[in-house]
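ARCHIVE CARD
Drawer: 12
Card no.: 0347
Subject: one protein chain, sequence and derived structure
Cross-reference: see card 0346
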Amino acid sequence: ETVKDLIRFLRREDDSKDIRQQLGDAMILQNDLVPLLLYHHNDQVLFQAIIRLLVNLTQPAIVLFGKVPTDPTTRHHYLAVTCHLQAYKQAFANEKVFTVLSETLYNLLQLEWEQRQEEDTLLIERMLLLVRNVMHVPPDPTLEKNVDDDASLHDRVLWALHMSGMDDLLRFLCSAPSEQQWCMHVLEIVCLMFRMQTPSQLVSTGGARPEREKEADTTELELLRQRELAEKRNRMWHRSSRHSRFVGTYVVQGHKSISDNDLVFHLGVQKLAGYSHDIGKEPQRRPKRRLLAPEAEERRRSAMNVRLFLRTFCIDFLDACYNRLMYSVKDTLLLEKGQQNDESYYMWALAFFMEFNRLRGFRPELVSETVGVRTFHFIEKNLTNCYEMMLMEKKDALPWSRRMHLALKAYQELIMTLEEMDKSKEESVRESGNVIKCGNLFYVMEYRELFVTLFRKFDETKQPRSFLRDLVETTHTFLRLLQRFCRGRKAVVVQKKRVKRKKKSRAQAQPSSSERSPEECEAQWQQLSQQLIAYAQGAEAVPDSAVPFDAASEVPVEEQRGQATARIQAALLAGQAGTAVGLLRSAREVWPEGEVFGAVGITPEDELELLRQIHAAKLPFEDVPVEDDVGPEEMEEEENEEVEAVSVSEKEFNFTEYIKRFASAPVMKACMSLLRGYRENSAHTNHCIVVILHRVTVGLHMEGLLFQLSAFRVFQAILADPAAHVYQELSKFARHIVRKFFEVAAQNNKSFVELLFWKSPANVHEMTEGYGSAHDGGGLSKKGPRWTEEEQTELDKLFSEFQDQIGGSQDKDVVDHIMEHIRDATRTRKQIVAQLVRQGLVNSSKELKRRKGVKLVLWREEQEMELQRLFEEFHKSDDLLDNIVRNLTAKRSRKKVADKLLSMGLVSDRAQLRRKRPSKSSGMCLQANSNNNADPWGDDHDHLDVDSDDEKESSEDEGSSDDDQPIQRAGARPAGARPAQAGLAEPVLWLGNCLRRTADDREEDGISLPVPLVPLSEENEDAMENRVFRRLLRALGVCSPANHEETFWRIPAELTPSRLREISDCLSALTDSDKDDDDDDDGGHGVISQSGGRRAEALQALLKRRKQR
């Protein structure tokens, strides 16, 4: 009962863990619980209660507190609990304790599955948890000051576990098919057993030292000896024969003091070389947010008997347990049966035991379970996920960085294993390795781009130096494998993914209406007139599949009149008389107001004259290609091609082009940062760094990438090192880079200034070949020829002359006039607009956009009556103006409708037209749908308040296209947002996955916090800059960065998990519908996207009129 009372007390402890600390201060575990466990283990009730209490008391401090506390008070409690745990571990370094546990566990495992009671299963799990907790206790560096080959506390616990036979029971649990439910517990214990070991040390234990280790020790001793001799010579040189009290005073010419005078030096001449103005000053403290990430716990060499036991355990584990255990653990992880972040143990075990197998004598059958394409995919997925979480959870960036490092180590060992398979004497093993490399590792783009991405995303404040070292070594091995693979083949075909930004068009390019002469226009009209007369008089059937507007366009239907006119003209230019007549009549039905396309009862002669005017007109709109008449099957195939967003193709791989991906400043900075510690690096690490730098700089003739002052400081330290002859490879490379720099400096006197900056390949090209060469023909710039000072002056003059044309005539604007009068006729409109913005002549390129559409000014009598009827119908609704705008037959902007209501006297103040809201909310955040059964992608709109301030009211004009369009409610599908047509299918799928994952996390954690959307792939990064994709994000309620301190868009906390899943399902349905769209009801022409209420109503009206005919 006393033991149960202690268990009940522990349930009531507060956040400071006061009861746990009191029990630790009283040494209850050492003085009472362990003796009870040893001498009363036959009492089953008491034994089970003691095990429960021991499991509770030995829980890791990181589990109790959730994370390492930062505030002083909580951190003090955390350290106190950790000290008690270390004392508990001392009590478990007893062979008798583990003997009692192993005997009890053995007896329980002897029972058949049917004979085990629930209490037996719980007892097995608790004993495994107890062993896990004891192994998890970290060492105390202040108390354990053991040297290598000495027995530490962890070694003594391992030896007690071995002598009790617990290790045999662990191997049995791994290999027995009926005990696979304990696979995660056993894997944790095994990982914690080897936490201080390295595979190389265990492999070399118990045998003769290999020659490689002897050579490494000899080289290290030679380095130390050379440095010691250099220091002795340096001290001898500084020693002067003159007494120190008569050192003298010197004036150093050419070395200024803190004033403008020469430096007065009061010490010996021998000490002048190391003089600096910073001597004696307090070094500047580095900000906490810029501190380097701490390294993981250090490894040490255990006692010989412990290493021999662990080596034997590894051999037996690989022979009988590894494949079965890793299969069970992988299955548990994929089915999400384990706890959070259990993947870390899986990746650690994969890296450790595969390296042990590789160093001991490679046997691929022992690790066959973890050598395959699925393992590569699993590790790559976890690596990417850890990086995303490291960016999102900034407070927990270090734990996620360690997990990311474990994933990288596992990936490194997989690549090393592939290299070992190439060296195998068995043909089947070599063939298996080639299948993995050719069909997946080198073929799939994600695997090839992984290392480039990791280099560019490296952050020394979150990722330790050891991560960078493993990244460099892994990249070196991967490049060596890839080069060897390409060298033995004539051509290597790899996968290539490309995002299609434009829709395909089957139409032939037609000459623009502005390029035709009057004679050509008249001749073509004579050819078309007979066909048009036949269609107009009904002699031939007019095709009814012509649609005058683009239902998937972002431009509202009522503003597509001008585009409809351009479509009719394009059909006439293409010689498709029937299509032109059909478009004209359809446009008359969609836009009857104003009789722009003729009256309802127009005669065939007037209709023919209207077509002639359209044919001869010089329209300001771009010509719209008209598709040829094709069958339903061909149309369906064409539409499938149009909606594909990501084009997956194959191309011939070029190794040199792939190396160019590493030619960037982040890669060079990371490599030089690691090379700065060349003394602490191993010889293999220094070799890997030099080979990568040599491939990029010397191999691509881009030595200028390393023309940077910090890199030269590293080269200076290498060349001045007393043991420089040991670093011959580094010294040779450093001399080559410095020599190339002085060759460039002899021709470019600005090279010394360039040393202050890291450079891109374009900067290197300009620095070595001449400034401006990248624009004048170097082929490294896509922005067109550079603007000279004379051209900029000419552009400024032309803009001042024609700037009154902004917003004026629809035929020509200021840019058109500039293009006619500028001397360089090769300049495009886009280049001119960009240069105008760059020179500050206009604030934005939007100011120079051509106006499209026809303005609606007059209100007819029937339209006023309709407006009054709608006002009386909706005057009691929550959003009066919104309902009126949506139900008007002739669509008008909200501002026009509001002005008309005021002029008719139906309302006296604009405030009466504002939406009635129960509480203030942001227009960017998603609001729950009041109707649970409503479609989240329905046609309903939730508009923003109109004319909420005078500034917005004054900024709207009658011809506006974007401002007049109602802003859809969050959750509504944006107009024209077909992801495949915009090249956004993959980003939309990624967005849906992020929303669903956020919903799962919020349901599991029970809390809702804003979650940033972090794009990793280049495709998703481009999508976040895409205007259409950002419009989709706003429509879904995703919040944009609030200030300059925020970088990513965020999923707001107001969204419930059910709402997030609903939106995610709609996004999936959106992409699916773009792939498999049905034909129209009339046997139709293709896919018409129901993306908004206006388009749906216009389409329904059109179909209704056709059926009536």
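Annotation on reverse: The longest helix spans residues 211-238. Residues 791-839 form one domain.
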